[in-house]
Every structure is written in structure tokens, then in C-alpha cells.
What we know:
This is Phosphonate ABC transporter ATP-binding protein. The protein is an alpha/beta fold and 230 residues long. It has one domain: P-loop containing nucleotide triphosphate hydrolases (Rossmann fold, 3-Layer(aba) Sandwich), CATH 3.40.50.300. 33% of the residues lie in helices and 30% in strands. It has helices at 48-55, 83-92, 109-118, 124-137, 154-166, 184-199, 211-214; strands at 2-15, 20-33, 37-42, 63-70, 74-77, 94-97, 172-176, 203-207, 220-225, 228-229. A hairpin with a 2-residue loop joins strand 9 (220-225) and strand 10 (228-229). The longest helix is centred in the C-terminal third of the chain and has 16 residues, at 184-199. The protein is globular and about 50 Å long.
Amino acid sequence: xxxxxxxxxxxxxxxxxxxxxxxxxxxxxxxxxxxxxxxxxxxxxxxxxxxxxxxxxxxxxxxxxxxxxxxxxxxxxxxxxxxxxxxxxxxxxxxxxxxxxxxxxxxxxxxxxxxxxxxxxxxxxxxxxxxxxxxxxxxxxxxxxxxxxxxxxxxxxxxxxxxxxxxxxxxxxxxxxxxxxxxxxxxxxxxxxxxxxxxxxxxxxxxxxxxxxxxxxxxxxxxxxxxxxx
Length: 230
């Protein structure tokens, strides 16, 4: 059963200060079935992250369709969806993990994860229990749970970012280099959660440079070069 179908996706940028026009992704086609995990590899700057950002609607594609089969809206083209629809999908159906943690000031690590569940409508008691399970899984020191993430190391911030996205168990999860600055022990924790989510039916697209991490995890792997799959 299809969950996501990308047809003829292209994205370009005008860099006015340099007088340049750059085509980042060209004629991308992907079919993703429910419960599948697709991996995308390629050199930095090849256009991998652009695909995820178009799905999440951080970027608007230049052309092409991104058809998503939503639990609430049914068949919806993310390239043309209204902002209120995108906001709902981000809160309830589509998760995104980047290498960078962006949170509201004076929000503790515990609140970062807990709020992700509260905004979905879960009760506080459930959110508290699931948050603690997730923070323990990623071995984030309990003394840090009620601290502000701007004091964390890069690896701690990344673990918290992954915890925030994965605690929601989204229908579609986009992973943009989720293991970039993690040690081997933390990578195994991420892999374990990805395997659990996959068993539970979460559909995923992940960008990785760590080919060893991808081994046995992805159902399909695409290699990207200069904006195209090769």
C-alpha cells in the first residue's frame, strides 16, 4: 500500500549575490510503501536533504508532485497543501530529524520531548511516562532532564532531537543524517528505535553517510549525484 509517491520533483535556487541559478534536485521519482524504509546516499551537496525538506515543506518544489496518503486528509499533494494542513501533518503524522536542535528558549530537555506528545493531544501522565522512557533509552543523564539544551554537547542535542521525533511514532519519519555526530553506542540506540518503529509500521526515508549503519536496515537504497539518482 502506497504511503508516499514523488513524481518529477525538481528544486532550484537563485543565488542573487553571485548571479547564479543552481538546480539542486532534478526529476526525482520515489514510491514508498507503508512500513518501508528507503535510504539515500551521496556526497555532501548532492541534493539529498533537499528532497526531505520538500516533503516536509520547508522548501517549495519548483515542479513535481509529492502525493501523501494522510490518515486525516486522505490523498494530499504536499507541494500544494495549505499551511494549516502542513502544520497539522507535522504535529501528528510526519516527523523530521535533522542534525540540529531548534527549541524554544527556556524549555528543558524533558519538556522538549513531553511537549511533542502533548501537542498531539495525549494526556500529561502518558506524556510524562513516555518521555522518561525515551530519555532513558538514549542514556541522557537524568541530571540533564530538567536543564536547558543550549548547555548540551552536540551529541546530547542530537539524541534529544531524535527522542523528540521518535516519541511521537509518526506515520512517516524523515531522517536527515540522524547519526552524524553520535558515538557507536548512541548509534546502536538509534538503530534499535528505528527497527522498533519499522516493526510497528512507521514508514521512513533516511539520509546517511554511514553505509555500515544502513546495512540490513533499508528496503531500498538510492545513490544521489549532482541532483539525480544514479
